[in-house]
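Lab notebook: predicted structure, single chain.

Context: the supervisor wants predicted structures on file for every construct in the current expression panel, including those that have not yet been purified. This is the next one on the list. No modifications to the sequence; it matches the entry in the shared construct table.
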Amino acid sequence: MYNYPIKRAPYQAKKISNSNRGMAFEDMINSSNEQYLSRDIAVIYKKPTPVQIVDVDYPKRSMAKITEAYYKTPSTTDYNGLYKGFYIDFDAKQCNSTTSFPLSNVHEHQIRHLERVMKHGGIGFLLVYFNKLNEIYLIDSNQILEYHNNSKNGGRKSISIEDFRSNCILIKESFPIRVPYLNAVDILIDKLKK
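Prediction complete. Output recorded below exactly as produced.
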């Protein structure tokens, strides 16, 4: 038709907070878990965080709004389920650093939980997303415990990216399963069978 000039607003990138980056990683894992479930590969779910609701505002009957709530207990890890007859339990962590992952990102109660999972024959691990590098790694419970214990005895308080690249399992994003972490879990299962 007519070629009228159109004035467009300048592009502005959306600011993403650190918590939103972590949520984006969780969304990727949730999407992967949905794919695993729909393809009957595994049954793995995000655990709900136990919350004690203290106060609710009812501006309208149909619009209840929680105004005050507290965590009942510290949560253990984010995900659990079954894969090939194995109990799977893991947490998703994201990291803004390009050089290392701070061990302070893994809480003491999470370490103890992963230790118990391992003790009872389950497979526990962390998925660590270095978002600036766009690299995802699986680090198993044994490795986390080793790094944690070393840091308690005066060792490093972080795990270097070189250690991840040398000693952990790289997970490459794909489609339709965004984070195909069960390929890495297969490697852990093979180690258990030996």
